[in-house]
């Protein structure tokens, strides 16, 4: 089996899918809950972003869709807070932002890795924007679908909901971006080197 064959890509996809399943269902692995009542800091975006860099946009989008589906299942089987119960039982909110993480990260890496940004820089940029896309889309879709209910959970007026939600998840988002920028190049670079050999 050559490392560039579809069998190799399927193997990597299967390994990363298994990792997503472990992250999703083993407590404090895929979601680390710091503040009560708020969604946890996720590490699952790392798997999707790394997959997008190694496998390309199709592989990244597939892993993102798998993450989203696991989020949907998790929201029905083991919700940890009222907001998770409310928003991630909606397939659009659970799946679309996660799918876009893989797509955006894969596209950015493909377009930037041969530019002045270099390999490490393009990985960091792809990781940052992939993470930002997830957070932004979850907030916007929550506002679009559940503004009244989410405002009730956050005890705020609907007109201030986006600002309140951004403030509430800002710490999580910053930690997720920092984690992605640090971990992605550290893991993806050797895997890409291995793929080329």
From TrEMBL:
Record keywords, A-Z: Membrane, Transmembrane, Transmembrane helix
InterPro entries in the cross-refs: ECF_trnsprt_substrate-spec
Molecular function (Gene Ontology), one example: transmembrane transporter activity
Keyword Transcription belongs to the record: no
Transmembrane intervals: 12-34, 46-67, 87-109, 121-146, 158-188
Listed name of the protein: ECF transporter S component
Biological source species: Latilactobacillus sakei
Organism ancestry: Bacteria, Bacillati, Bacillota, Bacilli, Lactobacillales
